[in-house]
Amino acid sequence: QVQLVESGGGLVQDGGSLRLSCAASTIFSIYTMGWYRQAPGKQRELVATITKGGNTNYAESVKGRVAISRDNAKNTVYLQMNSLTPEDTAVYYCYAQIVRRDYWGQGTQVTVSS
Questions:
Q1: CA–CA separation, 17 and 52 (whole Å)
Q2: Are 12 and 18 within 8 A, CB to CB?
Q3: pLDDT digits 0-9 by tens, 83-109
Q4: Which helix (H) or strand (E) holds 90?
Q5: d(CA 79, CA 63)
Q6: Checking DSSP bridges between strand 10-13 and strand 108-113, what pairing results, if any?
Q7: Dist CA 97 CA 39 (whole Å)
Q8: CA-CA distance, 33 to 85, in Å (whole number)?
């Protein structure tokens, strides 16, 4: 059973920073890890992904403000978010592709106050 455990969400002021972490419990190799988010009344959307080799992909809305990284030895992915705005308020979900299956974390709330 694969589990993704997220941490690091919370309340931050406009312009602030947060760092999210997600650790995957698995014995299998993880190809892609990443983060998606879902704001109230909206569909879940991509934030950023990173492959095992380090190739990254970012949503246009976060480019320049967000950095994704991973520690393959720890099966952990990180999301450093800077210059946060109220529009970044959402539940952030960790994602991992393991043996061609998709896995999701429970989600962590990020709230940016104006």
A1: 25
A2: yes
A3: 999 999 999 999 999 988 999 999 999
A4: strand 90-98
A5: 12
A6: parallel
A7: 23
A8: 24
Alpha-carbon distances, residue 7 vs 21, 53, 77, 101 (angstroms)? 5, 24, 11, 22
pLDDT on residue 62: 97
Please give the torsion angle defined by the CA atoms of residues 64, 66, 71 and 76, in that order, rounded to the nearest 10 degrees. -160
DSSP class of 82? -
Bridge partners for 4 per DSSP: 24
Given a cut of 90, whether residue 71 has pLDDT beyond it is: yes
Is residue 110 within 8 A of residue 16, CB to CB? The reply is no
Which two three-digit tokens encode residue 20? Answer: 């999210």
Q: In this predicted model, what pLDDT tens digit does every residue of 20-60 receive, in sequence order?
A: 999 999 989 899 999 999 999 999 999 999 999 999 999 99
6-24 exposure pattern, b = at least 16 Cβ within 10 A, e = fewer:
bebbeebeeebebebbbbb
Tokens matching residue 102: 């998709």
